User: Fold this.
Amino acid sequence: MLACRQLSKRYLTERGVVAAVAGIDLDVPVGRFAAIIGRSGSGKSTLMAMIGGLSRPSAGTVAVGGTDVWGLSENALAAFRNEKIGYVFQFASLLPTLRLIDNVALPAMLGGRRASAETYTRAAGLLERMGLGGYLEAYPSEISAGEQRRAAIARALINDPALLLADEPTSDLDEQTEIEIMDELLAVNREIGTTLILVTHNLALAEQAEQIVHIANGAIV
Amino acid sequence: MRLLASLALQNLGRRRARSLLLIAAVAIGSSVVFTGATLMRSIDDSMAVGFTRLGADMMVVPEGALTNITAALLTVEPTDLVLDADALDKAHLASVGRAAPQKVVRAEHSGVGSHHDLVDLIGFDPVRDFTVQPWLKEKLNRGLRAGDVILGAGRDAPLGSQLLIFGKPHIVYGKLGRTGVGTHERGVFMSFETLAALAGSMPQQGGARPAVLAPGKVTGFLVELAPGATTLQARFAVLSAVKGAKVVTGDSSLSGIRQGLAALLQGILALMILMFASMAVMVSVLFSAIVTERRGELGLLKAIGARRSQMVGMMVAEAVIATGVGGVLGVTLGVLVMRLYERSLVYYLENIGVPFVWLDLSRTVAVAAAAIVLASAIGALGALYPAWRASGRDAYDLVRGEG
Assistant:
């Protein structure tokens, strides 16, 4: 499913070149739940962004399902992100001016592969699944942080992605909500078979994964 | 895409105060552009009418005829005094290029207009005329015939309809455009032949018909100077060759006014260009700030698969909606401003004898549409570069508020 080869990301700063990720090789088979752990600043979010097509690597390759992600043209990369990747950020990432149902439907509408009615039916179903069936018409500011995070998971799943990337999705949530969110992610991985990569610095969460990748100073240790 | 358009609209609503300020700024700019352009064209047209004397450089009339020089518009006024129709032809004056004779009869109870309406029946020679027919705004699809009349812009009757003058049927052949000149606005124009045929039907005033209706007599001539000739040369030539005539050339001080107005128009144009440029810069700076502020949102859109064109489209749509609304409000504001002009500048111009001719409706609508399109284009251009630049950044950098 996922194959990273010599993946590197360097930033030019006032103090010179800083290597956020330095020559990582990583393979994650289809359907697996992998956790990337490490301290803050270890490079795990940067690695995740390169895997998800959000940040261009300085060197190396990322292949998802055999597709060389960073070899794609700009439009093809946008389509790849839209169709193949579901991304859950570590912050509230819903558009505040759209209703929950619109937020969830947005990726499918951008891709334009489904009819509008079909998309909205599916969006409503995903929100139901996340326990948000009563908030379809609500705006993000009208629901809690945990509910927003669940809505973001629903949005990530709208296009049936092959790869679900969750970058510290529970970092600012209470323990109970954290458990609920993790249960949702694990259910997606186990019931639908979506490959799940979770970035976290919470070892207890990581222990639920089938594969743990420990990163320090931009390299796998 | 509907959802992105709705997102653009909602983004405008989210920052209501800023959106309103942007709309207000664009409205003021558009108002200046619309008002300036409309007034420029109107003043330009008015000057063309007022200062070119409807195509004539000077007027030759009987010595005792009353003329209204302050009107500055050379139109033959009705008078009992007449000139010989061949007076200028016989003189063979080198300084006279073209001369168009006219017969003007002011008639009451003609059947045109209300009962006591005084109507100027103006006869002209269709072959020599150069002051009436150029103003034809609409006409029948054929040449002017005997029995046809042309109506001034102040009179209304459908083309081809029948108009009874002293009980005799005439066909409305055409209508003149607005000239701002009273006689042209209210006059009924016809060929000498048609006017002569009417003579028998006119009631006699004081026991005789107007002298000008006699064959070989005219009320006066509208004269166009020969190339290179001056008004002074022509004036002396006419006065020495045609006995009992006087030459009217209008008020020479109007040249100064014309030059002053021309300079004013250039000033307005320069202001409009400056206003346009500053509006474009302001919108661009504002949208650079808006894009910077919304990097997170753009990054998110990119992360979930928005194409670059979709992101740019959303930002440009947002700008076009705001500046387009500003443009519409600006045009509305401009109409109100022009109402004020109507009471001040127009009054002033008409006081010094220059008729003010507003642009006709279709051209005014075209200028209004152009002002709105221009405002929208400024919005599109102002947002295009910052949006394009931001959309090219890595989604991850945008989400983190960098780039």
